Each structure stands twice: as structure tokens, then as C-alpha cells.
Amino acid sequence: MAEILMLFYIPIIYVSLFLDVIEGLIKACDTDVDCQKKYPGPFEHLLKCIHGYCVCFPRNPGDSSGYPI
């Protein structure tokens, strides 16, 4: 019974890893406008496109730590 489950379990893991790699190769944005279209909502933070990924920056000029969305 356990061998039958492993027949299904292992391919599911490999397919999910493959999809993660494919998704990581696709850039999330090209411009800042792409980030605003992808993540609409209240703009309490600045959305910037940096190296193909959307990064969120607080509007407080004293806090310069950005974190990816």
C-alpha cells in the first residue's frame, strides 16, 4: 500500500518543484505601473519594480527598508 502511495506522491512533488522553477523564471514586472496593476489597493506604501520584482517601500522617509511583496 505504501509503495502505491509513493507512486503518486513522488511525481506530485517533482511537478510542484518544476512549476516553482518555471514561475521563478518569469519576471513579475517591467515598470512600476505593472506593480500597481498587479497589486491594486490603498497606496499606503510605494510599489517599485526592481530587477523584475515588485518591492514595497513605506512612505515614511526615515524607514528605508523595502520588502518584496
Automatic annotation (TrEMBL):
Could you identify this protein by its name?
Nodule Cysteine-Rich (NCR) secreted peptide
| The entry's keywords | Membrane, Transmembrane, Transmembrane helix
UniProt domain Late nodulin: residue ranges:
1-54
One MF term in GO for this entry? Answer: metal ion binding
Give yes or no: UniProt keyword Membrane.
yes
Indicate the transmembrane segments per the record: 6-26
InterPro entries in the record, alphabetically? Nodulin_late_dom
User: What organism is this sequence from?
Assistant: Medicago truncatula (Barrel medic)
